[in-house]
Amino acid sequence: MRSEYPILFVEINETNLIFAVTKYDENQNLNIIDKIIVSNKNVEKNNITNIDELSKQIKHNIEILESNLNYIFKKVTIVLGVFDYLCVNISGYKKLNGSQLLKENISYILNSIKSSIADSMPKKNIIHIFNSKSILDGNITDNLPIGLFGDFYNHELTFFLIEENNFKNIKQVFNKIGLEIDKIILKQFCDGAHLIKEHNLKSFFNITFNKKTSYINF
Fold first, then answer.
1. Are 168 and 174 in contact (CB under 8 A)?
2. Of the candidates 177, 170, 197, 204, the residue with the CA atom closest to the CA atom of residue 81
3. What gap in Å lies between CA 99 and CA 149, rounded to an integer?
4. Which secondary-structure segment (H or E) carries 31?
5. Per the count of CB atoms within 10 A, which of 60, 90, 161, 206 is most buried?
6. Cα distance between residue 64 and residue 44, in whole Å
7. DSSP per-residue letters across 104-148
8. How far, CA to CA in Å, does 111 sit from each of 34, 42, 151, 157?
């Protein structure tokens, strides 16, 4: 069920803070109902230069939105466009020996891989997890083949991670103003998802040129 209440998004990038309030309409489309863009002087590439000042700036602009809408926000979805990230593909498997693939099998593979990443990359924090590829007896399936019978199941997962210290700093910024972080979304991922949806792409290269940094995402 879609929320009937306003949803707050805050984008943090190298130059701006973007505050957007969205709400679902009767057709379940998410629309922007209010928006503020301000200059960001407390964040540099891969670094928050002043947590206290950034918290104050974010709080001030959220209070403006709350006053406009007569609504108090408790949660926030953060869009991060300021930190480097790591993308990792890892496969796990389950020997079925002719038995049925169960949801519990896939959950076990996911949890096992997450544990492996936590052990091997203790200074990273997982932001996104995606099912990249499902292969049952050598055949790639479009959907998770739960309930099907087979001998060998291979499951590939894609993880997006950022530095643990950057994650803790972001949490501290919003803890200071009493906002619970609902989700953290990487800006580069948002841009890629938008391209796929708008142009029905299966693959792409997205090259972004900024004043200080540039990106190639694919």
1. no
2. 170
3. 5
4. strand 30-39
5. 161
6. 25
7. HHHHHHHHHHHHHHHHH-TTEEEEEEEEEEEEETTEEESS--TT-
8. 39, 37, 21, 11
* Helix/strand number for the chain, H first, E second: 4, 13
Q: Which of 82, 73, 60 is nearest to 33 (CA)?
A: 73
Asked if residues 165 and 62 have their Cβ atoms less than 8 Å apart, the reply is no
Q: What size, in residues, is the chain?
A: 218
Query: Of 160, 144, 3, whose CA–CA distance to 71 is shortest?
Result: 3
Consecutive 10-residue averages of pLDDT for the chain (218 residues)? 83 92 88 94 88 96 96 95 90 94 94 92 92 93 93 94 94 95 90 84 81 76
Please, how many CA atoms are within 13 Å of residue 74, restricted to the half-sphere of its CB? 1
Q: From the CB of residue 144, how many other CB atoms can be counted at a distance below 10 Å? A: 15
Among residues 102, 36, 115, the alpha carbon closest in space to that of 69 is found at 36
- Name the token pair of 189: 């991922």
Q: Tokens 């790639």 appear where?
A: 140
Give the global pTM. 0.84
Structure tokens at 146: 């739960």
